[in-house]
């Protein structure tokens, strides 16, 4: 089975993720993806025979809108999506990736250049295996963005991404993930 088919089959087992994908298309967010932890953790859960939603803290819905970089504009989107998803049994974390450079250094101690797209932001996630974004296109076809492929994801290998994230950010994530999915192989060097 091709990796993309395998990915879609695994993600389809997470009814919450699929419902968020369905709803997200109606929010009118430019360049949106459901991405990061909720995607990779669903796959890990399926691979290890756990419930599809096991250990997933939140569901990331990222978009890229450089038209208004104010916190007020992003907060308005966050509130609208939160209201539209309040019946889902999860927290949906909404972020405008066009704004990341405005707060990244204060939070993580390293500067971040402005991202030109949501894809550019996904390229810089701390672990290579988490650099995956999914969205439903008009007509229901799945669009998958996985700049480093899906090999690490399906092999359950957590490898640091050399693009941006500080090593400490990667290490905290890896420790947390290994606590929930002890089958993971965590690599320490880039």
Report on the architecture of this protein.
Strand 6, helix 8 and strand 7 (185-186) form a beta-alpha-beta unit. The mean pLDDT is 93. The protein has eight helices and seven strands; from the N terminus they run H-H-E-H-E-H-E-H-H-E-E-H-E-H-E. The longest helix has 14 residues, at 71-84. The protein is 41% helix and 14% strand. Strands 3-2-1-4-5 form a five-stranded mixed sheet. A two-stranded parallel sheet has the order 6-7. It has 190 residues and is of the alpha/beta class. The radius of gyration is 16 Å and the shape is globular.
Give the helices and strands, then pairings:
Elements: H1 3-11, H2 15-24, E1 33-35, H3 37-47, E2 58-63, H4 71-84, E3 91-96, H5 100-108, H6 118-123, E4 133-136, E5 142-145, H7 151-155, E6 157-158, H8 167-180, E7 185-186
Parallel strand pairs: 2-3, 6-7
Antiparallel strand pairs: 1-2, 1-4, 4-5
Q: What is the CA-CA span between the terminal residues?
A: 30 Å
Q: Report helical residue fraction.
A: 40-55%
Overall mean pLDDT stands at: 93
Shape designation:
globular
Structural class of the helices, strands and pairings? alpha/beta
Q: Low-confidence parts, pLDDT < 50 over ≥5 residues?
A: none
Binned strand content: 5-15%
Count up the helices: 8
Main β-sheet description? 5 strands, mixed
Give the tally of structural domains.
1
Placed side by side, the strands forming the largest sheet appear as: 3-2-1-4-5
Q: Could you tell me the radius of gyration in angstroms? A: 16 Å
Oligomerization status of the protein chains: single chain
Strand element count:
7
Along the chain, the helix and strand elements come as HHEHEHEHHEEHEHE
């Amino acid at each position: 089975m091709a990796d993309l088919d395998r990915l879609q089959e695994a993600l389809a087992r997470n009814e919450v993720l699929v419902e968020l994908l369905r709803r997200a298309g109606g929010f009118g967010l430019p360049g949106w993806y459901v991405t990061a932890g909720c995607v990779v953790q669903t796959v890990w859960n399926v691979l290890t025979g756990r419930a599809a939603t096991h250990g997933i803290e939140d569901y990331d819905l990222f978009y890229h809108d450089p038209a208004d970089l104010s916190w007020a504009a992003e907060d308005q989107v966050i509130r609208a999506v939160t209201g539209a998803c309040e019946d889902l049994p999860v927290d949906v974390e909404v972020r405008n990736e066009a704004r990341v450079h405005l707060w990244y250094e204060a939070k993580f101690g390293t500067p971040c250049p402005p991202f030109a797209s949501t894809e550019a932001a996904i390229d810089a996630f701390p672990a290579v295996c988490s650099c995956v974004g999914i969205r439903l296109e008009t007509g229901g076809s799945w669009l998958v963005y996985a700049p480093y492929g899906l090999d690490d994801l399906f092999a359950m290998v957590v490898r640091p991404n050399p693009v941006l994230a500080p090593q400490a950010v990667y290490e905290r994530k890896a420790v947390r993930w290994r606590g929930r999915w002890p089958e993971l192989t965590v690599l320490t060097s880039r």
